[in-house]
Amino acid sequence: MKVIGITGGIGSGKSIICSIIEKLGYPVFYSDTEAKRILVSNKEVKLELTNLIGPQLYKGEIFHKEVLADKIFKDESIRLKVNQLIHPKVRESFNEWMIKQDSSLVFNEAAILFETGMYKQYDATILVTTPKSIRIKRTIKRDNTTAEAVLDRINNQWSDDEKKELADFVIINDDLTPVLPQIEKIIGKLNC
């Protein structure tokens, strides 16, 4: 079994690419979705985050992700502490999930695969790239946010050029270039 990491900046369309991969019959673990689940359901994490960020993060059972996003995209030390808290738990969930898979390839979608150094633990990595203008439009529509907020997040992530240096494969998801042939070609190479 080969383990393949899939990453890309906010609004790049990682989820679309992953859904196509799933339709082709390969299992995909969504690290970002798992991280969100942990943020709202893990009592230890909730307590530590409340101590770090403040009581405004959780109002009863309601998690205010915008409060967390505001803090982590404006304060590097908080972002590092949150990552140190969440990432090991996501990795543990991934390892438990992976054991249950029966496929020649398994995929792990993660937004900050290169930034955390996790890419070193995969057999290969795929970077999904999209022009910044499209990423901004997609994210505004998806998150009902502002261009300024999206740019803040983009500017706090590595650039595609930095990620390309480390990626084994690149998928162009610019709404013009067909993605299915790109995915099929990569999967063909991975299955060799």
How would you describe what is shown here?
This protein is α/β, with parallel strands linked by helices and 192 residues long. The chain has 9 helices and 7 strands. A 5-stranded parallel β-sheet has the order 2-5-1-6-7, sandwiched between helices. Strands 3-4 form a two-stranded antiparallel ribbon. A hairpin with a 2-residue loop joins strand 3 (58-59) and strand 4 (62-63). Helix 3 packs antiparallel against helix 5 and helix 6 packs across helix 7 (147-155). The mean pLDDT is 92.
Q: Keyphrases for this structure?
A:
53% helix; two-stranded antiparallel sheet; alpha/beta; 192 residues; 5-stranded parallel β-sheet
Give the low-confidence spans: none
Strands of the widest sheet, in order across it, are 2-5-1-6-7
Q: Proportion of β residues?
A: 5-15%
Write the element-wise H/E pattern from the N-terminal end onward. Answer: EHEHHEEHHEEHHHEH
Based on helices, strands and strand pairing, what is the structural class?
A: alpha/beta
What's the shape?
Answer: globular
Q: Tell me the number of helical segments per DSSP (H or I, 4 or more residues long).
A: 9
**In which range does the helix fraction lie?**
40-55%
The radius of gyration over CA amounts to 17 Å
Cα distance, first to last residue? 12 Å
The pLDDT mean sits at: 92
Mind describing the biggest β-sheet?
5 strands, parallel
Q: What's the total count of β strands?
A: 7
How are the secondary structure elements laid out?
Layout: E1 2-7, H1 14-23, E2 28-30, H2 31-41, H3 43-53, E3 58-59, E4 62-63, H4 65-72, H5 76-99, E5 105-109, E6 124-129, H6 132-143, H7 147-155, H8 160-164, E7 169-172, H9 179-190
Parallel strand pairs: 1-5, 1-6, 2-5, 6-7
Antiparallel strand pairs: 3-4
Helix pairs in contact: 2-5, 3-5, 6-7
